[in-house]
Amino acid sequence: MASSPNPTDQNFIVVDFHYNGQFSPNPLVYFDPDRASVRDVDFSGFGYEQFMEFLHKLTKSRSKDIYFCLPQESLGLGIHTLVNNGDYKEFLDLAYANDKRMNVYVDHHNEPIFDWIEAEESESENEDLDEDEDSVIQDSYSVDHEEDDATYPFPANKTARDRFLNILCEPIESEDQDDEYVPPQYPVYDERQPWDQMKPIIGMRFCNPTELKHMLSNYAVANGYDLWFEKNDSDRLLVKCCKKNKSPSCPFRLWASWMGKEKTFQIKSLVNEHNCCRVFKFGSIVTYRWIGKHFMSQIIENPKMSARKMKAKVSTTFNINVSVGQCRNAKKFALQEIEGSLIEHYGRLWSYGEEIIRSNPGSTVRLDVDIMPDSTTLFSKFYVCFKAVRDGWLEGCRPVIGLDGCFLKGIVRGEVISAVGKDANNHIYPLAWAVVCVENKETWKWFIDLLMDDINGGLGAGITLLSDGHKGLLQAVKERCPEAEHRQCARHILANFNKRFTGQQYIKLFWRAVRASTVEKFRGVMENIKSIDTHAYDYLIDRDPTTWSKAFFQEGRDCDAVENGVSESFNSAIRHARRRPIITMLEEIRLFVMERIYTQRVEGMEWDLLICPTIRKRIEDLKVKQRLWGVTPCGYQKYEVRFTDVAYGVDLIAKKCACRIWQLTGIPCLHGVAAISYLNHDAEAYVSQSYTTEAYLKCYQYSINPLNSSEMWPDVPYHKPLPPKEEDYLVTTRKSVHLTNKAIHKYQVLPGAVEQTRVYPGAMKDHHLLHHHLQPNNLLHHHLQPNNLLHHHLQPNNLLHHHLPPCQEEGSQLVEVEGGNIMNGLSNKH
């Protein structure tokens, strides 16, 4: 509680609160506030927290930037911060020592007030003004803080003829007329301000009349004012209230025009006072453009929103009535604005890829585009794998990768497909990601092919892949990585299983079958399922148990995961980014991974542990549970571990247990911990090297280098891709689609080509799909390895002009290289 004199009820201090205004520098003033004068509250009995709670209730604002100043002092000289109990004691002491009155100001915009004061003081020191001139300046500005409305420079019902726009704008009279006069700075319109808090302020400046009209629309809707434009052209704007009333009694009036010597549109005159009733239907002040701008984000999330549904949302959100036609035009306007933004985003993908290669040499970036029959270039696929991430995975992660896809949530539909690993602490490690139009066998095979090239995975030997049951993904893994261990997510299998076989008994037995670590246990559980329903048994057997039961998992992978949790976690982490335009989304994913690598490295460097914390906690839990098991030695480092009638053999030298959990995970199982504890050894010493802090730091030892802002990205001489057409990839998602006259994608392999080429029936012979692959310091067309001269290849400092080759009868042909220019001809006889 702040200490202060003990006043009686007759000598309470008077506090004048100023809020909902805005600070402006040079000189420091507080524009157009709402005021409240409190005289009957004993503030000496408050502490700082109680005072702030009182202030928040009074102003209906949770702002923490509070200042106080004596009424007789200017803000520039007498302003103080109010942030703690010490400041509050000074607040009370100053008030009681100065006529028991104090001004309090609420800063709603977090302005750098003391930086402004310091700059103002430095300017005044540079001016060669004597003491008399200083006193004139201070006296003239001090009137901004008088509490008498008759002398305050910005009363709400005065026009530009008041003292602010005349007296303060006139040259200050002084003995030295050669001194340069610095006019006061007017408030500038801030479009980032919440729409329902915008209001006109006399002298406020705008870039153009459109900004002012948009602000007035927000102001009118938020308060229910029936504003209308009496004069509205490119040079001036006159706004009044209550047009329908033949004898308007509402005194509101705003006049704005261009400033004489600068390209700024300014409010010159303002009578900001209303005595009219609230309206719910507006005229020209609420246009379809205004509705479209406010509903832009909702239309991005739901582009199929109907005009009637939008009308209902406008009514509930803004408490106004609009027509269906306005909403229809608003949606059309919003989609056009979004399309323009999307076209710009997709058109800059080439430059974005080049910037990644420039800043992170050795990374892999690949952009595929479609060349349509009308020569239009459409986006197809975009792949990213940063060198720092790839090297960290190779040196510190286990050979376990989760593959999954998730839908984009914006206007342009598509999917983000990703490869996610596990670090030594069993947390996610994003390895590579791509944006594709549709998730199918071809896109997954394309993605896995690039991934295997990046990690030198060959045909998948020694690698474990986790995925859901997507048919195209299963086929792509089988064809591209026949030597890899492929596991299906048990949750996805259970979800499909439950559609036909419901009941808790099925669920319990299914998970017992999944977690059975030996073939014998698995067979026993499956026999129980068979005894209940042979169809359920057959269904699970048809789903290939070797891909979803631990009994068949390969040993030595240090992972017994039966669910693709790493991919689900990554998809959840980027759920907000998936609503963004493509480059914004890719940047948010990059920033997420870049920051995660740094924070995980810093966290790991603080550990003073042999193994990672998550694994250590698991060992500690097993040490408690092992006390129920009896241990009988039966040979050198070999033991029988028994609990009632259940027994397992443990070999500490080979780090094996008959239950196979130790071999699958690389972490001693319950029986292994019991045998280790029997010898009074530390179980952490028996954990695989994959879980050590050393392996963890290896995983995060490299950093993703920062990228420059978009205006600094390199220019490239290629045709800018457009967003994909929705019908192009919706048709290809279902193979059973009824054939129509529309062109349907067919896939053919051209002789001599490295990649598949997308050919359109009825298209010209020289239109095809070009694959563009970015490598360090090179811009490559088609799938290229370093130093290959196959297809289009750009050496450093060379400019490649993107031309379509002349028609060929059939096949593909590599054109001779002359002077560093490489052109490739691809065609197909239709």
Characterization of this structure:
The chain has 830 residues and is α+β, with helices and mostly antiparallel strands. Among the domains are: 145 residues, Ubiquitin-like (UB roll) (Roll), CATH 3.10.20; 77 residues; 56 residues; 79 residues, no CATH class; 115 residues, no CATH class. Helix content is 35%, strand content 18%. The chain has 26 helices and 30 strands. The protein has a 10-stranded mixed β-sheet with strand order 19-18-15-16-17-14-13-26-27-28, with helices on both faces. Strands 4-1-7-5-6 form a 5-stranded mixed β-sheet. A 5-stranded antiparallel β-sheet has the order 8-12-11-10-9, with helices on one face. A hairpin with an 8-residue loop joins strand 24 and strand 25. Helix 10 crosses helix 11 and helix 22 crosses helix 24. The termini are far apart.
Topology (SSEs and partners):
Blueprint: E1 14-19, E2 22-24, E3 29-31, E4 34-38, H1 48-59, E5 66-69, H2 75-78, E6 80-81, H3 85-97, E7 101-106, H4 113-126, H5 131-142, H6 163-166, E8 205-206, H7 209-223, E9 227-232, E10 236-241, E11 253-258, E12 265-271, H8 288-294, H9 296-301, H10 307-318, H11 324-347, H12 349-359, E13 364-371, E14 377-385, H13 387-396, E15 400-407, E16 415-422, E17 428-436, H14 441-454, E18 464-467, H15 471-480, E19 485-488, H16 490-500, H17 504-515, H18 519-532, H19 534-542, H20 565-573, H21 582-605, H22 613-625, E20 630-635, E21 638-643, E22 646-651, E23 656-657, H23 661-665, H24 670-678, H25 693-699, H26 726-731, E24 746-748, E25 757-759, E26 769-775, E27 778-781, E28 793-794, E29 812-814, E30 824-826
Parallel strand pairs: 1-7, 15-18, 18-19
Antiparallel strand pairs: 1-4, 2-3, 5-6, 5-7, 8-12, 9-10, 10-11, 11-12, 13-14, 13-26, 14-17, 15-16, 16-17, 20-21, 21-22, 22-23, 24-25, 26-27, 27-28, 29-30
